[in-house]
Amino acid sequence: MPAPAATTDEELMLAYAAGDAAAFDALYARHKGGVYRYLLRQCRQGGIADELFQDVWMNLIRARASYAPTAKFTTWLYRLAHNRLVDHYRASAHLTLVSADDEAHEETVAALPGARSDQPQVRAENRELGERLRAAVAALPPAQREAFLLQQEGGLSLAEIADLTGVGIETVKSRLRYALAKLRGDLVDLDDGLRESLG
Asked: Any idea which architecture 139-188 has in CATH?
């Protein structure tokens, strides 16, 4: 029987550490999408993101016995993801990110909300919008992109992002401010409501 939805992430992780497999299933269901998008938008290659994604969850499984809720679970989880990315970049001996694999995410783009989402024209517009958003995020400098994705995908606070990335809160604020300004500029011709959702 799955763990109840009202259970906190920290309680679920402690339950999983104590042997409750359903608690892991609940954590995975809650966070798989955000973690995957964070990794994909950082490395921008579907195959690599898949591998890193599996590694993050395997690292979580390995670390379950030593888990202590000293920080928010999402901060801990995204630290695992961040560390795995750093390891990947070190192993591949470059920090320059490569081109995106957008085709792997057509379903997500097609599922963007729209009043007439079943109509082919709306699906095409949503796909184009998704491609533009992904391209705009991909064009951000790496530090700005990471801060933006940790906030948007991970739901992390400024302090949590600062702790995870090893910089001050003011630096995180600056990175987010520059990222949002660049995204707004890149998407200036889009609907005002969408641009306002970027902050």
From this structure: Orthogonal Bundle (1.10)
